[in-house]
Amino acid sequence: MMKKFILLLLISVVFFGALPALAVQTEPIYTIVPQGNVLQNVSDRGIQPVGELSANPMILAQSPTTGLPAAAGERYLPMLVQISTPQDKEFRLAGAGDKASWGTAHADLLYESLLNARGETRFVALFSDSFAQNQPQSVGAVRSARQPIVLLQQEWQGGVVFGGCVRTDNPKSVRRMLISNGVYGAGLAFDLYDHNTDEFKSRVHGLGAPNNMDIHLVGIRSLVPEGTVSTAAPFLFTDSSPYREGYDAAATVSLDWGHQSYISHFKYDESLGQYLRFTGDQPSMMFASSKGLSAESKIQMSFSNVIIQRMEYEPMNASGFLVAIPGMGMGNADFFIGGHYIAGYWVRESESSPTIFLDDQGNQIYLNRGKTYVAHFPNDALLTYQGQ
Fold first, then answer.
1. What are the chain's domains?
2. How many CB atoms lie within 10 A of CB 336?
């Protein structure tokens, strides 16, 4: 009996003695090795803009979002779509395997933001250039809206498409914000659970709900009142990047949002002039459309520019599980362009103003022509980059 008592006492000492150490564990536990050049909790750079902050003028026959050739006289009305990034069963990685998105290859910009305090994320895809080719006609999987899409709509003044949202009187809820901002009143908000989009949405057979909603985006865009256009806030583009000599090489960029399944890597392919995206050790793939969800129809996500926009997330509810990005402000920005790293800054003067990205000298950043990825990345999250 005494031996049994001593054994139980030892077990309790070991177990309960460990509890204080667990209780004071406040530092986040990251899941990538902090090697190479590490960017995390970097002090505010406080880069001052050269001259006044103002939107760049439109250039005739040039896309304001990609810098690629655009037909003159085309209606400028971007559409933003909330895209899911669930974990697949085979790899347990976000957006991998049969959980890959479709139609997103047509997007000009892809934004990634925290979905919750667990470190899971969700995409917002911005489409514009492809409407001249009557594309995309199939995009998904469309999911419920989160707060970042509201602020992006204010920035781009386009339409927003999503599959449901929180419908409360909380002024910070997506629906209340879209109403108070006049987006519903302008006919620019499309909740797929309303019936005005029925002819342009469907569930994809073989995929489980809720990650199986497909939309005909060109069709939904046609529902926007005739004559509605957006005011463009073009990026600056160049055919010869000024960010080579004197700038660190950045062949591999790794982002850890705080959840192992959502770690992503961008590897620079010099022959393509593109950063190829990976989720964990798997290429981040996209299906061409919902009509052919096969391995043969997949292509890898690739970007001419990778922008890491650092920011402080705020809790949206009492538990702190749901989080929100700031509607305006300033902070550090890390740019990866043409295989090089630029330590920069971002400024957004109001919710209705565009985000201005500045390089290390305080000039507006020059992007390479093509698609751009933007991460709304927490200040305390881990980013690493390596030259090789």
1. 37-52+234-386 (3.50.90.10), 79-221 (3.50.90.10)
2. 25
8 A C-beta contact, residue 366 and residue 305? no
How much is the pLDDT for 86?
93
Q: How far is residue 7's CA from residue 14's CA, in Å, rounded to a whole number?
A: 11
**Is residue 81 within 8 Å of 142, Cβ to Cβ?**
yes
Residue 289 confidence (pLDDT): 92
The pLDDT, as a whole number, for residue 73 is 83
Q: What is the pLDDT of residue 11?
A: 37
Residue 270 class from Cβ within 10 Å (0-12 exposed, 13-18 middle, 19+ buried)?
exposed
The three-state secondary structure class of 220 is helix
Tell me the pairing of strands 101-102 and 285-287. parallel
Prediction pTM value: 0.91
Q: Provide the sign of the torsion angle of the four alpha carbons 17, 22, 25, 30, taken in this order.
A: positive
Mean pLDDT, all residues of the chain: 90
pLDDT of residue 131: 97
Q: Give one DSSP letter per residue of 71-129, joined into a string.
A: -TT-----EEEEE--PBPTTT--BT-GGG-EESGGG-SEEEEEESSTTS-EEEEEEE-G
Bridge partners (DSSP) of residue 203 are 213
Phi (first) and psi of residue 176, to 5 degrees: -65, -40
**pLDDT value of residue 23:** 33
| CA distances (Å), origin 222, targets 79, 128, 129, 131, 216 | 11, 13, 15, 11, 10
Which residues of the chain register pLDDT less than 50?
A: 1-29
